[in-house]
Amino acid sequence: MKKTIDAKFFSVISYTFTFVIALICFLPFWLIVIGSFTSESEIIARGYSLWPSEFSVEAYKMVFQLPERIFKAYGVSIFITVLGGGISLFITAMSAFVLMRKDFEFRNKIALFFYFPTIFSGGMIPSYILVVKYLNLKDNILALILPGLLGAWNIFLMRNFMKSIPDSIMESAKLDGANDFVIFVKFYLPLSGAGLATIGLFTALGYWNNWYNAMMYINKADLYPLQYLLYQMLTSITGLRDAASKAGLVVADMPDETFKMAMAVITTGPIILLYPFVQKYFVKGLTVGSVKG
Q1: Cα–Cα dist 144/141, whole Å
Q2: Which keywords fit this entry according to its UniProt record (predicted)?
Q3: Reduced to 3 DSSP states, what percent helix, strand and coil does the chain have, rounded to the nearest 5?
Q4: Which domains are delineated in the chain?
Q5: Which tens digit of pLDDT belongs to each residue from 87-97?
């Protein structure tokens, strides 16, 4: 009886603590959403609140002034996220499959080529020379995909996850005459669903949030991803606001702070819709991949 009471008490404390932590994590995003629907003058005068005291959609009107540009940028971001994420996930899984093989003699030496650049990056100038001069990808959508295809941390996580798959599966498949590629595609990929979901989420977030590559390699407005387009719009608004202030003009109605909030809501929306579908795989994949080795 005492154990039952202790278990119930522990459950109440655990659920209460988890709810408080979840509420603390949710509160900043709620303030962002409410801030995006609050007038600029109200935010300047009273700051952020849990509910808009003066409702306004001026920030969203500013964002969607040219809706065709926004939707085109959305299309570019979705394209590079889906295509880049898919290719990256497949290459990452293949690399992890090779590096976790105990019968591959040079796996540690090759792994060094993956992990070493993570610690010592080549830097901006060598990357720019490689992409623009040698790969000739200036104003090419591949410049938004190729630089992010491989990540050492993703390979490491996926390799550790594949190590949790019993070796007997590979041995039995070889006895049946399957080659390495068939073993990888028909056995290891289906059994690595949790790991693939975890790495896929990391990769998709990386492509979706990346604006740096567009700033470096893209000048054509038609190839701007959503993040870089909104960054340019925010820079323009900030510049106009500063210029107006120096000229002594009234700038209270120019949506600067609320535009930032609206921009955050627009860019995080698709990721929030995606996360519930991979959440159960994400937790399992992250846990298994981090403890197996």
Answers
A1: 5
A2: Cell membrane, Membrane, Transmembrane, Transmembrane helix, Transport
A3: 75, 0, 20
A4: 66-291 (1.10.3720.10)
A5: 999 999 998 99
